[in-house]
Amino acid sequence: MDGKVTLPALRRMKEQQRKIVGVVAWDYQMARIADRAGVDLISVGDTVGVNLWGHANPLEITMDEMLVVTKAVRRGTQRALVSADFPYGPLQEGSAAAVRAAIRFAKEAGVDLVKLDGAADHPEAVEAVTRAGVPVFAQFGITPQTALRHGVEYRGAPSAAEQVPEEMLEAMVAEAKRLEEAGAVLLNFTNSGPVVGAAVARAVRVPVVGGFGGGPWLDGRMRMANAAIGYSAEAVDDPPVTYANVARTVLDALTAYSQDVRSARQIAGGIPVPPADKPADKES
Q1: Average pLDDT of 266-270?
Q2: Most exposed of 18, 114, 230, 284 (fewest Cβ within 10 Å)?
Q3: Rg (Cα) of the chain, in Å, rounded?
Q4: 144 and 188 in contact (C-beta within 8 Å)?
Q5: Is 38 left (phi over 0), alpha (psi -120 to 50) or beta?
Q6: Which of 190, 148, 197 has its CA nearest to residue 173?
Q7: What is the CA angle 121-125-126, rounded to 5?
Q8: pLDDT at 284
Q9: What is the model's pLDDT at position 34?
Q10: Is 167 in contact with 147 (CB distance < 8 Å)?
C-alpha cells in the first residue's frame, strides 16, 4: 500500500483478500523501523508492562504510562495507523470513563484508533467512544483481560496452544457482530483457531486480525515486534523460532564492549583516545 494507511483502506484489503500486517511496538525506534518495513498497523499494547518493564501482571499498567509509550510510538510513525490499548479500568468503569480515556489518547498521543479488550461486554462504551469521534479496535476471544472468565490463568493465555473451543463458534460470531454493530472498525480475535476464526472473519464486514492463536484464516496478523526479532532475555539461552535473535546479538555486543573497557582498549563508536605509548601533547 502506497501512502498513509487509512481505515477505509484496511476494509478494502479485506474485500480484496489482501492480508493486513500489524505489529505491537512500544518505543520510537521500533516504530520507525516497523513503519519503514511497511506494516499497516502499529499497536501500542498494554503488555508493555509485562514484556518490557517486568510487571507481574498486565493489569498493573496505568493510563499515564500508556500515554508516555504511545506518544513515543506516534512520533516514530508516519505511514502506518497507530492504535493504543486501554489499560484495565476505563472500559470497566463505564462509557463516560471510556470516552475520557479515548479522548486523552486522541488529543495527547494522536492515535488513529483505540483498542478495547473485552469490548463485547461493553457495546455501549464502544458506541459512546465511536460517537466521540475515536475509532475503536475491539479485542475479544481469550485475552489477558478476559482469561479468568474463560477459566484460564493469565500465564496460560493467550498462548499459541490455546484456542477458543469450537463449541463457542456461535457465541464468538455473535460477539463479533455485536462489536461491528456498536461501531468497531477493526476486530482483534485472540486465540481464534482455524474453525471459529474463519467463521468470524466471514460473518462481519470489518477486518478481523489476530495475534496469539491467529492465522491465515483471518484478515491479518498481529505480532509483537520484540517477539518477532527475539528481543527478550530468555532468547539468549532458549532461542525461540523468530526472524532474528536480537537478544544474542545484544549479549555478544555488550560482552565485547565490557572486554574492551576492562582491557583499556578503544570502544567501538567512542571518542578516539591516543594509544598508551603515544600520550597526547600537553600544552606548554
Answers
A1: 89
A2: 284
A3: 22
A4: no
A5: left
A6: 197
A7: 85
A8: 43
A9: 98
A10: no
**Is residue 79 over pLDDT 70?**
yes
Q: Please report the pLDDT score of residue 212 as a whole number.
A: 76
Mean residue pLDDT across the chain: 91
Residue 80, C-alpha cell as written in the block: 502506518
DSSP state of 222: E
CA gap 202, 198 in Å, rounded: 6
Mean pLDDT value across residues 123-137: 97
- Which are the contacts of 54, defined by CB distance < 8 A and separation ≥ 6? none
DSSP state of 114: E
Which residue from 106, 191, 198, 108 is spatially nearest to 156, judged by alpha carbons? 191
| Cis omega (within 30 of 0) for bond into 158 | yes
* Burial environment of residue 210 by CB neighbours within 10 A (0 to 12, 13 to 18, 19 or more): buried
Query: Which residue is it, cell 460470531?
Result: 173
Mean pLDDT of 139-167: 66
